[in-house]
């Protein structure tokens, strides 16, 4: 340890740390305590010896003498000590640990070279303390909201934004007052900065020349937030209730993004692509897919008033079928069949390309979920000459992972209990148009049941 540092630190604290850790330097002593604090028994033993208070005193009175390594080790020890150990969490509050950490963070923010490691450790310590309960959360909140949080949110690093988000989530979860503050003007400014930092910090490493340029209508922050909401909806479908208004808003985003995306180039990446309009388009589709799946899971009763019913009344099916017709065929069909004949397009040169890998699959998935238990949608697909179009999606496609599975799901829902749709396939077969290359490639063929005169898909082997 540097002589100047050693002479400036309190001897009683140093002597205790050296004796307990059996070390001769502060760096070694702190590391030894960090190792001990990694277990619940170790934290309990250190709590009985009031180590947390000693470390807080060390930081509070002698911060200027702690170099980066010693400071990070001290903060790491505080973080570990407060991980599920109630005595240490309470001591942290009683000894003004929140104020001491705030001083550390302010000091770090004003250094020429920001030490993100120290900031991360300090925030992780606060996050562990916040888990202890309401008193701890309120103590943190009143000292940090909104200005200190806002300053921290502007550090463009995932290392710091992650623990910051944990603190915010814990403090507002179950507390309507703090949630209201977070949804107010100051709080929304904070959320905006967090979204901006997160969108920069976790942006995919994609060469800009390989993606479409962003437009003014959609920002990276908007695309990032939509990605997060889409993931939450997908992971917590049983817990989240989607309103009709929200569903229609997502449909509006989908249509708006469709107008800004360049469909002339085939996308090289799946979501996220790094292009805001494409990502908004894609995440709108995945959200529509899950919204429609959520309604379908409620049972076989068709409800025109639920979110899916409102989407359909607003022309969702029309939009998707038209877009599917305008796309170039799946790869396997493209290689074996004339484009214009296959998709019913007059000029194959004007066909659109999938702007990201999985775009066709996501369209088919939304349609498939809309068809589930909805005879009116089954009939509408038939009336719009969409039966053959959807059957063409039952193929493997290198640009659309799991297209085959979603295609089979969609076709099953299209024919389930609908004799007119089944008969329409029979009519296609009589014209020699059913057993197309994509159906053969799937290992299937369409046959007529001689007794019922209804079509059925059977294995060709």
If you had to describe this structure to a student in words, what would you say it looks like?
The structure is a single chain. By secondary structure, this protein is mostly helical. The chain contains 27 helices and 2 strands. The protein has a two-stranded antiparallel sheet with strand order 1-2. The model is unreliable at 338-346 (pLDDT under 50). Pfam families: Atx10homo_assoc.
What would you call the quaternary organization?
single chain
Total helices: the number is 27
* Biggest beta sheet summary: 2 strands, antiparallel
How helix-rich are the residues, as a percent range?
A: 55-70%
Secondary structure tally: strands: 2
Low-confidence segments, given as residue ranges, are: 338-346
Mean pLDDT score: 87
The dominant shape is elongated
CA-based gyration radius: 30 Å
Span between termini: 78 Å
What fraction strand? under 5%
């Amino acid at each position: 340890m540097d002589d100047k540092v050693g002479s400036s630190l309190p001897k009683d604290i140093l002597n205790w740390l050296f004796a307990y850790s059996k070390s001769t330097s502060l760096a070694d002593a702190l590391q030894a305590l960090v190792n001990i604090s990694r277990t619940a028994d170790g934290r309990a033993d250190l709590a009985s010896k009031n180590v947390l208070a000693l470390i807080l005193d060390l930081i509070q009175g002698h911060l200027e003498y702690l170099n980066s390594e010693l400071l990070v080790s001290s903060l790491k020890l505080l973080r570990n000590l407060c991980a599920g150990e109630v005595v240490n969490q309470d001591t942290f509050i009683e000894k003004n640990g929140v104020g001491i950490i705030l001083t550390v963070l302010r000091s770090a923010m004003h250094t020429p070279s920001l030490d993100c490691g120290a900031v991360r450790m300090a925030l992780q310590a606060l996050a562990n303390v916040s888990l202890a309960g309401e008193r701890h959360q309120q103590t943190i909140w009143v000292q940090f909201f909104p200005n200190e949080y806002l300053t921290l949110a502007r550090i463009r690093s995932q290392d710091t934004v992650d623990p910051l988000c944990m603190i915010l989530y814990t403090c507002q979860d179950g507390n309507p007052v703090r949630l209201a503050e977070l949804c107010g003007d100051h709080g929304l400014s904070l959320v905006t900065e967090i979204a901006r930092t997160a969108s920069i910090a976790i942006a995919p490493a994609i060469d800009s020349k390989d993606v479409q340029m962003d437009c003014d209508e959609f920002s990276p922050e908007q695309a990032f937030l939509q990605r997060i909401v889409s993931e939450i909806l997908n992971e917590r479908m049983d817990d989240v209730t989607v309103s009709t208004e929200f569903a229609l808003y997502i449909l509006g985003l989908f249509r708006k993004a469709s107008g800004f995306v360049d469909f002339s180039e085939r996308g090289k990446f799946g979501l996220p692509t790094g292009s805001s309009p494409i990502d908004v388009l894609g995440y709108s589709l995945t959200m529509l897919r899950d919204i429609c799946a959520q309604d379908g899971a409620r049972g076989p009763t068709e409800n025109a008033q639920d979110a899916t019913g409102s989407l359909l009344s607003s022309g969702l099916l029309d939009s998707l079928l038209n877009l599917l017709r305008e796309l170039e065929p799946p790869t396997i069909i493209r290689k074996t069949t004339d484009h214009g004949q296959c998709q019913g397009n007059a000029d194959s040169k004007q066909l659109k390309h999938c702007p990201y890998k999985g775009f066709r699959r996501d369209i088919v998935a939304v349609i498939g979920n809309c068809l589930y238990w909805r005879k009116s949608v089954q009939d509408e697909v038939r009336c719009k000459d969409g039966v053959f179009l959807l059957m063409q999606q039952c193929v493997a496609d290198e640009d659309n992972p799991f297209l085959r599975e979603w295609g089979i799901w969609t076709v099953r829902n299209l024919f389930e209990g609908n004799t007119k749709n089944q008969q329409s396939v029979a009519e296609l077969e009589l014209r020699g148009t059913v057993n197309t290359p994509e159906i053969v490639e799937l290992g299937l063929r369409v046959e007529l049941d001689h007794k019922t005169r209804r079509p059925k898909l059977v294995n060709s082997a």
